[in-house]
Amino acid sequence: MRQWRIGTFSMGLSLIILGAVLVLANFFNWNTALIAISWWPAILIVLGIEILVYLIQSREKTPILKYDILSILFIGIIGTVGVAFFVVQSTGILAEIQKAVHAEEKVETLPVVKKQIPSSISKIVIHPAENLNIETNSGRELTLFGIYETMAGKGDSLSQDDIVQFVQTGDTLHVQFLSLPDSYGINHYSYQYDPTLSIPEDVDVEIKKGFHNRSYPAIKLHIDELKANWTVNSNIVWLYMNSWENQNLTIEASGLDSLEDKAGLLVVKGAKKQNNEKSDEQITFSKTFGEGEHKLKFIDVEMLSIYE
């Protein structure tokens, strides 16, 4: 006659119950923490039921309980592993691991954004979040394009809503650049992008410093011909200007911490250092090209580099 050892029946029943609970939990989104906490008490309940059944069915006057230690041990190990896998899956850790395994470094093009500038718009205000290239065009269209690089899984392409937002207030168009999304999980990644914004040359422009007031974003200005008034308030600025002598422009700067004139055109008598509350020595200058009808102002710029 086969001898009944306490734990054998419990092992089978516990695995059936645990498997059924985990399957149902996936469908009904049950609390993972509750399942993990209640698993070990459930083993004691099943073992207690098996002992009572054995005692009731035993024909011996003084039954001797014999335990299947190996089965009880397997219940604990297999059950704990099963619950652990379920916790990993339900908390999203497994998805993060899978994403990290399939991650790849991508260099792709940003979605091209085009926006017509109506004649009612007389000023464009730019709020950069990261480094930004700005160039001028002879039309009435604002265009955004560029590339981005990231270590991310497939299907993580950027959309226009991830990059920029347009808000019109009266005769002013605000161009708000957004900080790109970051992931801080196991599969940590961040985006790096190099956007270029093309702006009509005959619309007034104001470039803000940025909402973090950090040493970046850095602004690169590529100007063919300026037919409007621009004000630049950014920490780091590179200025590239074509045909300086043919410009009808006045360049003014105040509150500069550093001036690097690689074009050799702005070292003028008007350039001098001034004392104020921000720094012991800051630079101010004014330089006129042609009749100086239009103005390009740099205000509180930490470093201005000028190229030809």
Question: What would you note in describing this structure?
Answer:
The chain has 308 residues and is α/β, with parallel strands linked by helices. It folds into two domains: 8-91, no CATH class; 104-307, no CATH class. It contains five helices and 19 strands. Strands 1, 2, 4, 5, 8, 9, 11, 13, 15 and 19 form a ten-stranded mixed beta sheet that branches. It has a nine-stranded mixed beta sheet with strand order 6-7-3-10-12-18-14-17-16. The radius of gyration is 35 Å and the shape is rod-shaped. The model is unreliable at 274-279 (pLDDT under 50).
**Count of DSSP-assigned helices:** 5
Number of domains: 2
Give me the strand/helix succession.
HHHHEEEEEHEEEEEEEEEEEEEE
Span between N and C termini? 100 Å
Please identify the structural class as seen in this structure: alpha/beta
Estimate the global geometry from the Cα principal axes.
rod-shaped
Based on CA atoms alone, the radius of gyration comes out at 35 Å
Proportion of residues in extended strands: 35-45%
The biggest sheet amounts to: 10 strands, mixed
Short descriptors:
single chain; 308 residues; alpha/beta; 2 domains; ten-stranded mixed beta sheet; nine-stranded mixed beta sheet; rod-shaped
Question: Helix and strand layout, with pairings?
Answer:
Blueprint: H1 8-28, H2 32-57, H3 69-90, H4 93-101, E1 104-109, E2 113-116, E3 123-127, E4 132-137, E5 141-152, H5 160-163, E6 164-169, E7 172-177, E8 182-183, E9 189-200, E10 204-207, E11 218-223, E12 230-232, E13 236-241, E14 249-256, E15 258-261, E16 272-274, E17 282-289, E18 294-299, E19 303-307
Parallel strand pairs: 3-7, 3-10, 4-9, 4-11, 10-12, 11-13, 12-18, 13-19, 14-18, 15-19
Antiparallel strand pairs: 1-5, 2-5, 5-9, 6-7, 8-9, 14-17, 16-17
